Amino acid sequence: MGLATCPLPLQGGTPTRRGATHRFGNLCYHQAASHKGLPYTAEMGHTMVTVIDEPIQVFAHFRARTFSPTRFVWRGRNYEVKRVNARWIVRDGANRRYHFAVQTDGAGDLHELYLKSESMQWYLGRIDTDG
To answer: b vs e for 111-120, b when ≥16 Cβ sit within 10 Å of the residue's Cβ?
Structure first.
């Protein structure tokens, strides 16, 4: 499929050392924080990308100096995390956002979850759905 970029320009935030884009499944995209308040759905190849940016409840496994989400609740529905495909940190001054690209028990959809260090609140950033 190659690489695709989201249709919205990057706004604010500090890119990670990999630059302003990150690999997520078969997509290359701008950090989710750049889309805050701008919900959109975009088709990229055979993948539909929907930005959500809503607070969620997350259950996570903590071990040594690392942690991973194991399950989350969004709009009253439970999602079991089957696999963490990627993880990265976005720095914004003293604050950090810990991002996770996860697969759930659904039909192969990818969910981007992130934890804001300043509020310790988890968010569902976006969902990538195979079309």
So the answer is: bbbbbbeeee
